[in-house]
Design a protein that fits this description.
CATH topology of chain A: Cytochrome C Oxidase, Chain A
CATH architecture of chain A: Up-down Bundle
Helix content of chain A: 55-70%
Largest sheet of chain A: none
Strand content of chain C: under 5%
Structural class of chain C: mainly alpha
Shape of chain C: elongated
Distance between the termini of chain C: 50 Å
Shape of chain A: globular
Distance between the termini of chain A: 33 Å
Radius of gyration of chain C: 22 Å
CATH class of one domain in chain C: Mainly Alpha
Number of strands of chain C: 0
Number of domains of chain A: 1
Helix content of chain C: over 70%
CATH superfamily of one domain in chain C: Cytochrome c oxidase, subunit III, four-helix bundle
Largest interface: A-B, 113 and 105 residues
Structural class of chain A: mainly alpha
Number of helices of chain C: 7
CATH class of chain A: Mainly Alpha
Largest sheet of chain C: none
CATH architecture of one domain in chain C: Up-down Bundle
CATH superfamily of chain A: Cytochrome c oxidase-like, subunit I domain
Order of helices and strands of chain A: HHHHHHHHHHHHHHHHHHH
Strand content of chain A: under 5%
Bound molecules: heme-A, dinuclear copper ion, copper (II) ion
Chains: A mainly alpha, B alpha+beta, C mainly alpha
Oligomer: heterotrimer
């Protein structure tokens, strides 16, 4: 079979000795066309990367505006200066004489922030960018199973995002990212913007399904010869579990949003209580997707953390099987807990059931965290930017996850639901978990993707800024929540002023941190030193090819010769033993 | 947004306290009601960081205890894990050229241990939380039932005797916060429903909330605290609690607050009595306006969500479909019961129908009040008096309504 | 598929044994190790896709269950005005088409292009018949009476206030299904086109036939659920 394959490659024009996938072929326009029509998973991954980072930037700017508004309780400002809300003055200076305009602008801002961050940034973020790039590389494959479907998925993503941006240009949407009915079916009745935003989420769902489907098949069918399920890197396990959730959960949001669109257009009544419909049914449908999707967000992040910890601590990951299986466990249980978002909307029986199941989903996560910490034991830990990010992840995600408990506990959730406690919880898991892991992974794989090194010092500075700023911004919000600050409030009573002020200062530190990263990356692309094929001494297959990888990924058919984490017995490819020394052989050592 | 029309001279003098009929005599004399004092109590400690006051009923104490239990459980594991993480990171930091020591890659016993221990702790959390939850949801049998109606963007509370509360108080820059009195040390049961979208009735000081839906009833129970000397103020004995709307419901979601004021039994009874009719349709109409309409309409000439009522009655208006009409009694009635029928140009169809939320008598009173502040209807400029809507923050709230709070 | 654009003059005519799309001449994607592997991958992909389709309809079925329990009388009213005979007819039509599409796969596996084409044609006729019956004898009749979804509902004799809601669910469910029938028919037409023009399918290359057939079976399966739920339960 190998022979057939090699022939095939030659038939393609003998690209073997050709340069990296980044090498432009032809002039400017033909290069553009080559990218726009590419079916190469690496190029698609890079395109996704830039798209999601752009969306992150947009969403982040909306967040900065949200924080700016909350800097003042507003009612006071109105009295003293006759002015209205801060964002009201900023975005609608002409029409801002009334408090309502200010509120309307704020409500649109946090909706845009949430919708962009969830649908356009975080769901595709890691799987579609880093996953697309590294899944085939780590499996030793030449591409994903369905390269054209992959490209299609990218174009669907772009289409969906355009709908989303259209709704912003048309004036924004004020439903919250959750689109709860009957508010979402009645607000802005004469306008199309809610329609476009819902349509955007609907379309983006298809992109998500296609990506997930592609990855599942790739993992099943395209592993390099000799790679059993338990020889796969943990990142693959995580992506695999994620993809399963994507495939199984996304259709449900599809039909939900479709019904919502019809509800808006034709008042079919399914979710409209005044026509006999049931708004709680919408919430069930919505969370049936949107709870599993929080694990779509976090599982790839967890996969990255497993890689970062193992490589930068040069340690066989502790409890490989436990981590691999817990990914699947999380994926399975994640479908059973959606009701914990509705404790204040459901009957006692279902609330009780969902509370119990929610605790269940925390167990596999706790197992992962314990195993990661144990991995550090007796390692050889390099404190570079990716590792710092991995440690930040452990810190922040633990807080985020642990604060899930008071939310999962029925009696306390009746108090905490829809308060800033929830806001803090989910930023600790989404931003402190997923985003932190993604930025860490980006630094880890940056040399491989673009063939350039980034500046380590600036990387570390950026990481510390983000870490500090993040805690300043969001730790305060736990106190706000328990003290009684509801979420989605444009103005609030004076008692919360100090805490909100601190939180706003924090958001500026985060911004600074990300700007440092941004300039570091740009600098690296323009003037960074050339990256060696394996700067960190990694053992997974992507480190065996060049940096950046050649068009067809590998020079020859890959064969599995060692496990992904055998740091104690294998000198990493392209590395010499002086730099990455092996421990002396030990007698009777089992593993 | 349209610029607010300039009010005619003296427009803020409408329904003057001075010119008010005798029926309102008690009210006129009254100064501002007792000030709002959000229930803040510095208690220090970790609990004090999270909660602004100590709970004074069993349900609150249990909830806080539950929270603190989870907190300490989480803090324990968090500190332990973070300590190990930092300690090992420092201890095993990379030294160039030095090989890492060999170590094992898994340990079944350890893994079973750290699966089983947290799992059993979670079981405990779940059961305790479940009991606390049932305690809060199931009201006591003898509880006093309040009917809560939610609409964009206010709460209406109906007392067991049919009285609707709506004393308006001023706090900071806000003059339209509604105050609902409750007797101390009493079991209360809420029966809530909404008139438009989903809202959520949250009383942070009681650590409980529940969503409020259109077309169905939800509710919960709580016990008001027994007041003590710490609640004595110059104006009487009372304790204030915030109510916030905790489910996003549109433009003024963040303004949908109210105050629950717990007071001794006799003060409470007096208060409820004072909420009733004054006998004067204009005053009563103004009260209805304050209770139900002031979130979106004004009587001072400024257009908010809806058009102002000042000089509105009897004038001609344009609708978004291009037609126009004179705003007479029938039109006002239609606007209240079926607001979507004709939408005034320059406004969105934001108003929800008040069908079932407003009685015929109230509608008539509202019309009377509208007439009284409209020149076109013969009311207006001359016989008017201020209502405090645009008064400075610390100014007296409208006396005709707020007098009621004075008896405390 | 790019072949059509880049077709050069020196290429053998479509349908001739030398054309690259003739099944004996077809290779496999360069990232697969063999055609068999590619076939397996495509089939797995299709199964996953079918899973998503089932979950899509699951939403409708859930809504159906909820409202059936909430408003049994309204549903009874609807079921009574649905003629089970047309439903049954359509069920038979779809079952028949499932059988022919299965035979089409069989024909492709055995390299009998003629049988493949014939079976596909019959399947497509069944699809058209299904849509025709649905439109002509069901939708049109009801729409004329005003039994329409949502805002269009104008049937004056509805006894139950929830009847419009239930009609909406009926239209959402059957409409979405009809859409899938059309999509499935498009897929099969594409297969038919390639079978006629290029003889593109044979024992080693029938992935497209197989996956389209799988999709068609799913469409059939969903109808098997819709039919009794809507027409038979009173
Ligand atoms: C990445 C996304 C993500 C993740 C991973 C999680 C993880 C968890 N979430 Fe979170 N959640 C959200 C995103 C996420 N959540 C969002 C976006 C919302 C709000 C949506 C909205 O309303 O807008 C939300 C809301 C939300 C609610 C509803 C609150 C409300 O509105 O009333 C609840 C309630 O149960 C909850 C619980 C949990 C739990 C128990 C976990 C668990 O999986 C956590 C498990 C993790 C740990 C347990 C910590 C790590 C382990 C250790 C440190 C070891 C020690 C641990 C032990 C000894 C147990 N979440
Ligand atoms: C991925 C998810 C995600 C992320 C990352 C964030 C990030 C942030 N969020 Fe948000 N947030 C949500 C998801 C997210 N949020 C959701 C779902 C809601 C609920 C919405 C709703 O209620 O409907 C919410 C709501 C929400 C609220 C509550 C609003 C309310 O209820 O009234 C607040 C308030 O403080 C807030 C603040 C912030 C801040 C300050 C950040 C900051 O951390 C942002 C920092 C980021 C930047 C400043 C961008 C900088 C980027 C670059 C410079 C580009 C270059 C980058 C690289 C090279 C890496 N968010
Ligand atoms: Cu009412 Cu929010
Ligand atoms: Cu959840």
């Amino acid at each position: 079979m190998t022979t057939v394959d090699t022939n095939h490659d030659h038939a393609h024009g003998g690209h073997h000795d050709e340069g990296s996938y980044l090498t432009p072929r032809g002039g400017f326009w033909s290069t553009i066309w080559a990218w726009a029509s590419t079916v190469d998973h690496k190029k698609i991954g890079v395109m996704y990367l830039f798209a999601v980072l752009f969306m992150f930037f947009l969403g982040g700017m909306a967040a900065i505006a949200v924080r700016l508004e909350l800097y003042e309780p507003v009612r006071q400002a109105m009295d003293a200066t006759g002015a209205t809300t801060i964002t009201g003055q900023l975005f609608a200076p002409a029409g801002a004489e009334s408090i309502d305009t200010g509120n309307q602008i704020y409500n649109r801002l946090f909706t845009l922030h949430g919708a962009i961050m969830v649908f356009m940034f975080i769901v595709p973020s890691i799987p579609a960018s880093l996953g697309n790039f590294f899944l085939p590389l780590m499996l030793g494959a030449k591409d994903v199973a369905f390269p054209r479907v992959n490209l299609l998925s990218w174009y669907i993503y772009v289409t969906g995002s355009i709908f989303g941006v259209a709704s912003i240009i048309l004036g924004g949407v004020d439903t919250g990212w959750t689109f709860y009915t009957p508010y979402s079916t009645t607000t802005d009745a004469d306008h199309w913007r809610v329609f476009f935003m819902v349509l955007a989420a609907f379309v983006l769902g298809f992109s998500s399904i296609l990506t997930g489907l592609n990855f599942v098949v790739t993992t099943h069918k395209l592993r390099a010869p000799g790679m059993g399920w338990f020889d796969m890197p943990l990142f693959i396990w995580a992506i695999y579990a994620t993809s399963i959730i994507q495939v199984l959960a996304t259709p449900v949001i599809g039909i939900t949003l479709l019904l919502l669109l019809f509800e808006r257009l034709f008042h079919i009544g399914i979710f409209d209580p005044s026509l006999g419909g049931d708004p709680v049914l919408f919430q069930h449908f919505f969370w049936f997707y949107s709870h599993p999707v929080v694990y779509v967000m976090i599982l790839p992040g967890m996969g990255i953390i497993s890689e970062l910890l193992a490589v930068h601590a040069r340690k066989h990951i502790f409890g490989y099987r436990a981590i691999a299986f817990s990914s699947l466990g999380i994926a399975a249980v994640s479908f059973l807990v959606w009701g914990h978002h509705m404790f204040t909307a459901m009957g006692e029986l279902s609330s009780t059931l969902f509370s119990a199941l929610t605790f269940l989903v925390a167990i596999p996560t706790a197992i992962k965290v314990f195993n990661w910490i144990a991995t550090l034991y007796k390692g050889s830990i390099a404190l570079n930017t990716p590792m710092l990010y991995a440690l930040s992840f452990l810190f922040l995600f633990s807080i985020g996850g642990l604060t899930g408990f008071p939310l999962a506990t029925l009696s306390t959730d009746l108090h905490l639901h829809d308060s800033y406690f929830v806001v803090a919880h989910f930023h600790y898991v989404m931003m402190g978990g997923t985003v932190i892991a993604m930025v860490g992974g980006l630094h880890h794989w940056w040399p491989k993707m673009f063939g350039k090194m980034y500046n380590e010092t600036w990387g570390i500075i950026g990481c510390l800024l983000v870490f500090v700023g993040f805690n300043v911004t969001f730790f305060t919000q736990f106190f706000l929540g328990t003290q009684g600050m509801p979420r989605r409030y444009a103005s609030y009573v004076d008692e919360f002023h100090t805490l909100h002020m601190i939180s706003t200062y924090g958001s500026w530190i985060i911004l600074l941190g990300f700007l440092v990263h941004l300039f570091n990356f740009i600098h690296s692309l323009v003037a960074g030193p050339k990256a060696p094929p394996n700067p960190w001494g990694g053992l997974t297959m992507e480190w065996e090819t060049e940096s950046p990888p050649i068009e067809h990924n590998f020079h020859h058919e890959m064969l599995v010769k060692h496990g992904p984490y055998d740091f104690e017995s294998v000198v990493p490819p392209h590395c010499d033993e002086a730099e990455f020394p092996l421990p002396p052989p030990q007698e009777g050592a089992g593993h | 947004m349209t610029t607010p029309p300039t009010p005619p001279a003296g427009a803020d003098q409408i329904v003057s306290d001075a010119a008010a009929p005798a029926a309102n005599a008690a009210a006129q004399a009254a100064p501002a009601g007792p000030p709002i004092r959000p229930y803040l109590e510095d208690q220090g400690g970790i609990h004090g960081l999270f909660f602004r006051n100590e709970g004074h009923t069993d349900a609150i104490i249990a909830t806080d205890a539950m929270y603190m239990l989870i907190f300490w459980f989480s803090a324990f594991f968090f500190v332990l894990l973070m300590f190990l993480m930092v300690y090992w990171t420092i201890k095993y930091r990379r030294r160039p050229g030095v090989a890492p020591p060999r170590s094992t890659a898994h340990n079944t016993l350890l893994e079973v241990f750290w699966t089983v221990v947290p799992s059993s702790a979670m079981l405990v959390m779940f059961f305790l939380g479940f009991w606390g939850y049932m305690d809060k949801l199931v009201p006591a049998g003898n509880a006093m039932e309040l009917n809560v109606k939610a609409w964009k963007w206010d709460w209406g509370v109906t007392y067991p005797d049919g009285t609707q509360s709506g004393q308006l108080v001023t706090l900071g820059g806000r003059s339209d916060i509604k105050l609902h009195a409750l007797p101390e040390d009493t079991e209360i049961k809420l029966r809530m429903s909404s008139n438009d979208v989903i809202h959520s009735f949250w009383i942070p000081d009681y650590r409980v909330k529940m969503d409020v839906f259109p077309n169905r009833y939800t509710g919960y129970g709580f016990r008001t605290p027994a007041l003590g000397p710490e609640d004595d103020h110059a104006e009487g004995r009372y304790r204030d609690h915030w109510v916030f709307c905790a489910e996003y419901c549109g433009d003024l979601h963040s303004e949908m607050a109210a105050i629950i004021r717990v007071m001794p039994q006799e003060d409470y009874l007096q208060w409820v009595k004072d909420q009733g009719s004054t006998g004067d349709p204009i005053i009563d109409g103004k009260n209805v306006f304050k209770r139900k309409c002031a979130t979106c309409h004004s009587d001072d000439g400024s257009n908010n969500i809806g058009p102002t009522w000042l000089n509105n009655f009897g004038t001609e208006r344009q609708f978004i479909d291009g037609t126009s009409a004179i705003g007479d009694e029938n039109y006002v009635r239609e606007s209240i019961l079926n607001p979507g029928a004709r939408i005034r140009a320059g406004f969105d169809n934001q108003m929800t129908s008040f069908q079932g939320l407003i009685t015929d008598e109230e509608i008539e009173n509202v019309i009377a009040y509208m007439k009284s502040i409209s020149e076109a209807a013969g009311g207006g400029a001359d016989d008017a008096a201020g209502d405090g809507d645009d008064a400075p923050a610390d100014d007296a709230p409208p006396a005709d309504i707020d007098a009621a709070g004075e008896h405390g | 598929m790019a072949t059509i654009d880049t077709q050069r003059a020196d290429l053998p005519a479509p349908g001739s044994e030398g054309h690259p799309l003739f099944w004996k001449n077809r290779g496999h994607g360069h990232h697969f190790r063999s055609s068999a592997e590619e076939f397996d991958a495509c089939k797995l992909g299709m199964w996953l896709f079918l899973a998503t389709e089932i979950l899509l309809f699951a939403g409708i079925f859930c809504a159906y269950t909820v409202f059936r329990t909430l408003y049994p009388e309204a549903w009874a009213e609807i079921s009574h005005s649905l003629d089970w005979r047309f439903g049954l007819l359509n069920t038979v039509v779809l079952l028949l088409s499932s059988w022919t599409v299965a035979s089409a796969v069989r024909a492709a596996q055995r390299g009998r292009n003629g049988a493949l084409i014939l079976n596909l044609v019959v399947t497509l006729i069944c699809a058209a018949l299904f849509i025709f019956i649905k439109l002509k004898f069901e939708y049109m009749v009801k729409l004329d009476l005003g039994k329409a979804p949502g805002t269009w509902f104008s049937y004056p004799y509805a006894e139950n206030p929830q009847v419009p809601l239930c009609w909406s669910i009926y239209y959402m469910g059957t409409g979405l299904h009809a859409l899938h029938v059309i999509i499935g028919a498009c897929l099969l037409s594409w297969v038919l086109f390639r079978a006629i023009r290029y003889k593109a399918y044979g024992p080693t290359h029938y992935t497209m036939v197989e996956t389209s057939a799988l999709y068609w079976h799913l469409v059939d399966l969903i109808w098997i659920f819709l039919f009794p739920l809507l027409y038979l339960i009173h």
